[in-house]
Amino acid sequence: MTSVNTSCSTNMTVWKHTTNQLYTYVYLIIFIPGLLCNTLALWVLCRFISKKTKAVIFMINLTIADLAHVLSLPLRIHYYFKDEWPFGSGLCMLCFYLKYLNMYASIVFLVCISLQRCAFLLRPFCARNWKRRYDICISAAVWLVVGLCCSPFILMRRKSNSGNNTTTCFKDLPMRQLGLTSAISMMVGAELLGFLGPLIVIGVCTYLIVKSMRRRNQKQQSTGSTRKALRMVRVCTGVFLFCFAPYHINFLLYLMVTQNIITNCEAGQAIKIFHPISLCIASLNCCLNPLIYYFLTTEFKQQLSQHGSSVLRGRLMSTESTSSFRD
């Protein structure tokens, strides 16, 4: 038994170094495109799109959630590259918190986008009477609820300092031991409210839109808006499953390992190894979400194209006027 435990401990020590490299490279790959795409998306959505029925407010909030996580990536990259955290425990906890806030805010806003597109397609009169302030109130409620629900992720971590006064952070923060009731409540809440519930809602939206499209095809009344709504919900479903399903499948097992509910060495090792991989996959949503805005929102492409053309024309005109003045 001792030799098995020693082997497991040795393997996990080697994996810790590999994990640091994994986080460093993945976050480096995500940072630049995530920052550029989300900054551009936020600028275009806020300045040029005035449509009330295109879930624009929810897209703006989704972009803000992605930017909050992307802006914390340089500090994460520094920690995993240098293996030290000189920025204080408060900033460590904030960056740690933003990771999970981004994940669950993204999940909820993807659900809101799918629900609104489905509801406005099936109930066009509801769309006409819908007010922008309704979306703003819903978004504020989402941030409040998600912010409170993500607090256990940081409450479960304890501050820890090594002997050389270098503060550890993120994955190296030790886990608090929870009671059986608290552990079960957290597992059920995260899985049901954070994954299975949203998955069911998005799945129902997809089913209703497909059903509506088939009915309209039979009556030869299918429209472009129906196909666009279906593509929107399908892409939301794809991003949701690709980014968040691996993490939530592994999260339940990972929490059982950290709380010593699963004690088998090989099983615990496999679960711990897959945990950082699933977190890296979840972080990819910062780069994938802008695809929803660009490829599925006609107004986004039109306004971006028109503005880009106007800027180019302005530069050409200024260049021509300067050259003619010189002549």
Automatic annotation (TrEMBL):
G-protein coupled receptors family 1 profile domain: which residues?
A: 37-293
Q: What keywords would UniProt list here? A: G-protein coupled receptor, Glycoprotein, Membrane, Receptor, Transducer, Transmembrane, Transmembrane helix
Q: Where are the transmembrane segments?
A: 22-45, 57-81, 101-122, 134-155, 183-210, 231-253, 273-296
One GO location term (cellular component): plasma membrane
Gene giving rise to this polypeptide: LOC113113518
Could you tell me which species this protein originates from? Carassius auratus (Goldfish)
Coiled-coil regions listed in the entry: none
Task: State its location(s).
Answer: Membrane
In Swiss-Prot or TrEMBL terms, this protein is called: P2Y purinoceptor 10
Source organism superkingdom:
Eukaryota
Q: What membrane topology is annotated for this entry?
A: Multi-pass membrane protein
Task: Tell me which InterPro entries the record gives.
Answer: GPCR_Rhodpsn, GPCR_Rhodpsn_7TM
What would you give as a GO molecular function for this chain, any one? Answer: G protein-coupled receptor activity
* GO BP: phospholipase C-activating G protein-coupled receptor signaling pathway; positive regulation of Rho protein signal transduction
